[in-house]
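Case study B.
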Amino acid sequence: MAKAVDRFKRTPIAEQDPNVRITNFDEVCLGYTEEEAMKEAQRCLQCKNPLCRPGCPVSIDIPGFIKHIAEGEFAEAAHVLAEYTALPAVCGRVCPQEDQCEKTCILGRKGEPVAIGKLERFAADWAREHGIKVGKTKPSNGHKVAIIGSGPAGITCAGELAKEGYDVTIFEALHEPGGVLVYGIPEFRLPKEGVVKPELENLKRLGVKIETNVIVGKTITIDQMFEEGFEAVFIGSGAGLPKFMGIPGENLNGVFSANEFLTRNNLMKAFRTDYATPIKVGKKVAVVGGGNVAMDAARTARRLGAEVHIVYRRTENELPARVEEVHHAKEEGIIFDTLTNPIEIIGNENGWVKAMKCVRMELGEPDASGRRRPVEIKGSEFEFEVDTVIMALGTSPNPLIASTTDGLQTNNHQCIVADDLGRTSREGVFAGGDIVTGAATVILAMGAGKQAAKGIDEYIKSKNQ
Amino acid sequence: MQLYKIVRKEILAPNIFSMDILAPRVAASAKPGQFLIVIADEKGERLPLTICDYDKDEGTVQIVVQAMGSSTRRLFEFEEGDYLKDFVGPLGIPSKFVDEDIEELKKRRMLFVAGGVGTAPVYPQVKWLHDRGIEVDVIMGAKNKELVILEDKLRAVAGNLYVCTDDGSYGFHGMVTHYIEELVEKQGKEYDECIAIGPMIMMKFVALTTKKYNIPTIVSLNPIMVDGTGMCGACRVTVGGETKFACVHGPEFDGHLVDFDEALKRQAQYKEEEIKKLEAYECKVEEARE
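Model:
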């Protein structure tokens, strides 16, 4: 007799051993087998009023796809997902599920919530590996739409519009499409060849054209796009500008933005000696910040052979990174120096980093974000010897498009102002994702891309009535 | 029509070559002062290069490159009819004068100082001004006669062209800075603005020289970059005590405010890696020969 499923305990998932994975860039999580996925899916209570679903920014029918997995109908599970998300293999890997769907899963009250993300990933991977084609396209309606940026917002918006029969062209500034999925998130968390490329191939299969090496605002303007016959433009150019702390010594050699460090490694493949782009890692690295990007940079530096410290001004409880990333980072030997804040970077006589001056912090009263504000402990200054400092303090939107497009309203954070359907202050121009919200998550950008596709569809239909 | 075809290639001097690349979108939007990024092949790096010329009708953009490091030497191997993998631009903010009043510009006495392959990006600026009836003085410097490039092209658009060589094998014997002194002190020339483009060290000394004469000076910086769109921040430079990104805030800055010593150090950041890559490249070339 089959052993009864323990409802409150998650089916374990295979991962690469930490000692092995710090020597390679292969994916850490190996994913569920069919049996494991079915076992995990059978834990789902199939709630009549599922609490998980409202936790999902794109309202995926979570019990619906999980039920198919539980019954071994994996292709059907993928079809359910495809109705709601263009990138299930990506979201299953990078969504902060513990703050979304899994947070509200009823099983979480007494035990562990269903591994919704891991099951989403399973269904998407299974469909891809078995050549299941998902998504249907309506006949062409002849209307041209331009999408700026091929990250999660742009991909989703393009996919939705292509399915409706629009003639969609994506313009990408870099030489590879994918946006943050390609330049930002490392291989060991999101494989490029195995996962990201096939998603982009799917998009092309829907008829979407992708033009790389086009910097909107430089190579071509939005006005020129309208002249070229595009009836609507969606801006999904993301939040790509790195922030620095503004402390002395930040321009010393050996101080990098996480964006630079990750772009060199991910997009330019600097970890491979057969690629021309160099990367510097040093022997002892301090990564300043506590988000997912900080974890990505730290774990990348570890894999390149360095001793790595995360330097974060609050405590571990406030780390904005996903729990899984923090857990993986610790397993890989990343040292967490919390309640620590850098105040100066000290260089040697040749202009290279030799140490970082820090102060100890303690938590005070809660601030506007609801988190307790870190306060400096007087007289706690100390020097911390490092040869590389990576700043992972967040990013802000690139002002390039807004500054070259007349009539496009932005707010004081350089974000483009857009409503729920992505409509901006300029007719025919829509926007969504990080360019509107400031740096956020893949899934929120996808949600915005999807909404904007609705907005664009309505706009073009009403105009052509 | 396939993009990024090398329509013409010309050797201008030992290890210095020009290429006309088919890239109609870039050709249509390029302005003086801007730059672009090239990736030669699948495993190549993003290489920021200056724009020497552009032909909107033909849809081509001309780059001038000195084969020094492994990536520029790899690029040198490409021949007419070959294709570059990627070609993106124009990047950076165009020269300020592009948006200025032409009548005002006609009154301005401008001196351009070009050093080495920095002569290439000076050309479209001088040409743009010449096309609008503005004549400017140009000093161009090279190590020796062999390395003097684009002389005829530049002579055709410059008011006065002065050539200097370090070894005296052609033109004035001395550095471009010496010739600035010569023009200002001995020939009594007066300038309202100087625009200097060349190696970082040359721009540093030009800025020091023009500072003596209180000539406002613009330099075009060429620091290390990855994306060229403001994403990586590798091109950080201190200008007047503030950190700027050369790719999006520049590449042109007030030469009297740039912290050249920091910029010089930052430019050497990947020197070790570059030496290794160059050695590996030379080994490969050697093997291919055998």
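Residues 54 and 61 of chain B are 4 Å apart (CA to CA). The remaining cases will be described in the next quarterly update.
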